[in-house]
Automatic annotation (TrEMBL):
GO cellular component, one term: nucleoplasm
Name of the molecule in the record: Nucleoplasmin-3
Residue spans of biased composition, Acidic residues class: 114-128
Subcellular location: Nucleus, Nucleolus
Its biological purpose: Plays a role in the regulation of diverse cellular processes such as ribosome biogenesis, chromatin remodeling or protein chaperoning. Modulates the histone chaperone function and the RNA-binding activity of nucleolar phosphoprotein B23/NPM. Efficiently mediates chromatin remodeling when included in a pentamer containing NPM3 and NPM.
Gene3D superfamilies membership: Nucleoplasmin core domain (2.60.120.340)
SUPFAM superfamilies linked to this entry: Nucleoplasmin-like core domain
Residue ranges annotated for the Nucleoplasmin core domain, each copy included: 6-105
Main localisation: nucleus
An MF annotation (GO) of this entry: chromatin binding
Species for this entry: Copsychus sechellarum
Pfam families attached to this UniProt entry: Nucleoplasmin
Domain of life: Eukaryota
Record-linked PANTHER family: NUCLEOPLASMIN, NUCLEOPLASMIN-3
Length: 136
């Protein structure tokens, strides 16, 4: 698997950053968000960072992950909060700049760690009743 450093900055002029992967890519991608922090030029105001992703029903959900303020909490460690792309980071309140850093991990399908997952999906298929041809 490959591990890439991820970093982006949210500001008054660039309020959102979307991370997406190529639809054709059959690797599994995991984003791990480690730190969200205010950087030079931030005013003493509440800066709310939201993560916008999709739930298992493919509905868009926005979750606030950080509320930063210079005087009380300029930095928040998210302890490698794991997300699945596509995902958007948005500055929902405040003007930043807020810097987000973390990791982007690419797990290739042929990695040994996927054998277990494959077994599970085969079992699920076996439990489905066979489709019978319609009687004419």
């Amino acid at each position: 698997s490959n591990l890439l450093l991820l970093g982006c900055e949210l500001t008054a002029s660039t309020k959102s950053y979307t991370f997406q992967v190529d639809e054709e890519d059959d690797s599994d991608h995991i984003l791990a968000l480690s730190v969200v922090c205010l950087t030079d030029g931030a005013k003493d105001e509440c800066n709310v960072v939201e993560v916008i992703g999709r739930n298992h029903e493919n509905q868009e959900i926005a979750v606030p992950v950080a509320n930063l303020k210079l005087s009380c909490q300029p930095l928040l460690s998210l302890d490698n909060f794991k997300l699945q792309p596509p995902v958007t980071f948005r500055l929902a309140a405040g003007s930043g700049p807020v810097h987000l850093s973390g990791w982007h991990r690419i797990l290739h399908r042929d990695d040994a760690s996927f054998e277990e997952d494959d077994d599970l999906s085969e079992e699920d298929e076996e439990e489905l009743p066979p489709i019978m041809p319609a009687k004419k």
